[in-house]
Amino acid sequence: MTDRILDYLRRTPADGPRLVVDLDVVERNYSAFAHALPDTRVFYAVKANPAPEILNLLASLGSSFDCASVVEIEQVLATGAGADRVSFGNTIKKERDIARAFELGVRLFAVDCVAEVEKIARVAPGSRVFCRILCDGAGAEWPLSKKFGCAPSMAPDVLEQAQILGLTAYGVSFHVGSQQGNVQAWDSALATAAGIFREMAERGITLSMVNMGGGFPAKYLRAMPGVPAYGEAIFNALRTHFGNQLPETIIEPGRGMVGDAGMIEAEVVLVSKKAETDEIRWVYLDIGKFHGLAETMDEAIRYPIRTNRDGDAKAPCVLAGPTCDSVDVLYEKTPYDLPVSLSIGDKVLIEACGAYTTTYSTIGFNGFPPLASVVI
Amino acid sequence: MTDRILDYLRRTPADGPRLVVDLDVVERNYSAFAHALPDTRVFYAVKANPAPEILNLLASLGSSFDCASVVEIEQVLATGAGADRVSFGNTIKKERDIARAFELGVRLFAVDCVAEVEKIARVAPGSRVFCRILCDGAGAEWPLSKKFGCAPSMAPDVLEQAQILGLTAYGVSFHVGSQQGNVQAWDSALATAAGIFREMAERGITLSMVNMGGGFPAKYLRAMPGVPAYGEAIFNALRTHFGNQLPETIIEPGRGMVGDAGMIEAEVVLVSKKAETDEIRWVYLDIGKFHGLAETMDEAIRYPIRTNRDGDAKAPCVLAGPTCDSVDVLYEKTPYDLPVSLSIGDKVLIEACGAYTTTYSTIGFNGFPPLASVVI
Which segment of A77-91, A133-147, B149-163, B240-254 scores lowest on mean pLDDT? Predict the structure, then answer.
């Protein structure tokens, strides 16, 4: 974690949990993606963290943006970035939201069925659409369900219908699953995408673009490959499946762009045991599932945690949040090793919290305010 | 569902999902609790729905309030109810929050360990404390973990320590699990509580109160016993275990007070299939897990849903929310029967949404605003 964040926390003590994001790390991550895949456009997944300072920085660095809603599109346009740098990447859109995006200048839309194509044809005529296909997500720590995308066999019909209705059938997208640890995960999806390109060519329609989605990991407790390893594997897969006719390509990092740029400072509220004879302690923090750490759901994401007593002996504990909700437990099935000396009132630092924390926070469950956030 | 809500929705069409809560139903529920257990004080669990109109109504009806935080205490005091009608029921409290509650006049606090007793003794001298004990939660649709409460064998030591430190060891609390369908669930917990009363008497300390918690169900799809059945079973259990020396008693209904008083109006955004050969449709609404329907987590709560096409043939579908998040699926393991004719743009009414919806809503995940709420 960055000295800048530690410095900031020391200089500005505060009550209550707070996220601090270091823009230098975001800039470093953007550069890593740009260098690893120099011919690929980066569309930052705004939903990961839409803080204006982050959007402004990425806009100034030349990033494009993957938006899930009209509000996110407006947040991006507020940076001064043009609508040509926006993809409306949600496959589930109200027709009036598509119309509003079109009004704002957006011309690139995700679809995964004919009904969505029809909406776009009605209110965003002439736009480019890409069809999202299902992908098995093997190897991801947060695998995706079938919620987004259609079977690859259905994609050519969806794209052909777009062309028939006056849209531009522009390409194919997929997502290999969030926090994807296997750099080869893109290979089979790119093979499938290349097959759809060929099928469309046989139908007389030339596709241009492959949107290779997100999935690039942040560094939590488990070691992960670096961005260059992803770049190399993806480039090799592109060459394997598209040969010399490489399509335009897009990636949509969110977690990989901002995850390790943020750190949450929290406080120990209580340390207790449930019975005199219990071996395991419960440690309660002033932040939990409902105020930023939602991704501990099913203990999926395991955040690194630092304390001022890390030199002391450690023992496993159940780690929980502060709300009157029994679901608000962070790590229980696999208890978390923390110093035995950890005490009420101690501050703890939770690392790699830049993505999917502020936005997942409830508006005020139990009367606790949403997660505070500072960008430095 | 109430005609008042249906009338309101007809008269005031609006864009986007919204919760409408009918105060008449809340009043009816309060009366049902007051009649079923006439000697028991009702402490409404504010976290279920802290809308000012609901708190004002309940304050005027004579209710007391179970609060999870200083903000909730302030919300209750804003109704004009005195601090003697407040219980700070969270067992996990910062010492400075206890101090603030004490300053505001609160004198009743939950504990489940000696460390929490010590905080209260330091900053809320002379207050009453009750010790929460663990309860197995069998029969609950949303069973509780071990997060709150200590083993019953530990409770006498916790309470004795309170007395030693100048507090009043006031009683015992437990929670039989949320959405508890078994009216007998209170029996074994009351037996345990009576045992702690006897043990304390042997130590020369007379306990006064049993806080019997919440757990009273709302009516979702599955039929549940009515409030009178709970009242009768609880009264019988009290007589069995406390004989003629009935303690003061408290209940803390949240879901049971407001759950069935609210209805969410939502809109169908997309209906699609993932492959031409799929039998099952996906129906996407403009509300999901992150904007009010968090309690569909693990498909725990199954909301009744009405449409304008309920006379038509029905077929199972996967029901999902509108965000770019694969977790945002409401019912998939057990698909939901909805009319085959259900179409994009149709409104749907989701019943029994008065509790744990607005407060669980994220502050704006994916750029979608928090759940709108109207109280009529």
Answer: A133-147
Note whether A299 and A324 are within 8 A (CB).
Answer: no
Gyration radius (Cα) of chain A, Å: 22
Q: Average pLDDT, stretch A35-46?
A: 96
The domain B260-375 is placed in CATH, from the list 3.40.50.10050, 2.40.37.10, 3.30.110.30, 3.40.50.720, at 2.40.37.10
Predicted ipTM of the assembly: 0.94
B37 min Cα distance to partner chain A (Å): 24
Cross-chain Cβ contact A47/B284 below 8 Å: no
- Cβ separation of B113 and A272 shorter than 8 Å? yes
What is residue B141's predicted lDDT score, i.e. its pLDDT? 64
- Distances from the Cα of B338 to the Cαs of A23, B281, B341, in angstroms? 47, 10, 9
Characterize the bridge pairing of strands A372-375 and B18-21.
unpaired
Structure tokens at A94: 């109200």
- Which pairing describes strands B64-67 and B40-45: parallel, antiparallel, or unpaired? parallel
Q: Which CATH number fits domain A89-253: 3.20.20.10, 3.60.70.12, 3.30.70.3270, 1.10.1040.10?
A: 3.20.20.10
Q: Which amino acid is at A177?
A: G
The alpha carbon of residue A218 is apart from the nearest alpha carbon of chain B, in Å, by 17
Give whole-number Cα distances, A256 to A29, A90, A222, A268, B158, in Å: 7, 19, 14, 29, 47
Q: A211-266 pLDDT, tens per residue?
A: 999 999 888 888 888 899 999 999 999 999 999 999 999 999 999 999 999 999 99
Interface test with B, best of A92, A96, A174, A343 (most B CBs within 10 A): A92
Buried/exposed A332-352: b ≥16 CB within 10 Å, e otherwise: beebbebbeebebebebbbbb
Each residue's pLDDT tens digit, B32-79: 999 999 999 999 999 999 999 999 999 999 999 999 999 999 999 999
Q: Which of A87, A116, A324 is the best residue to mutate to test the B interface, defined by the most B CB atoms within 10 Å of its own CB?
A: A324
Quickly state the pLDDT bin for B299 (edges 50, 70, 90). confident
Residue of A nearest to B67 (CA): A366
- Evaluate whether B27 touches A348 at the Cβ level (below 8 Å): no
Residue A116 has phi, psi (to 5 degrees) of -75, -35
Residue extents of the structural domains in chain A: 89-253, 260-375
- Please give the mean pLDDT across all residues of chain B: 95
Residue A324 is among the residues annotated as catalytic for this protein = yes
Instruction: For residue B50, list chain A residues with Cβ-Cβ distance below 8 A.
Output: 367
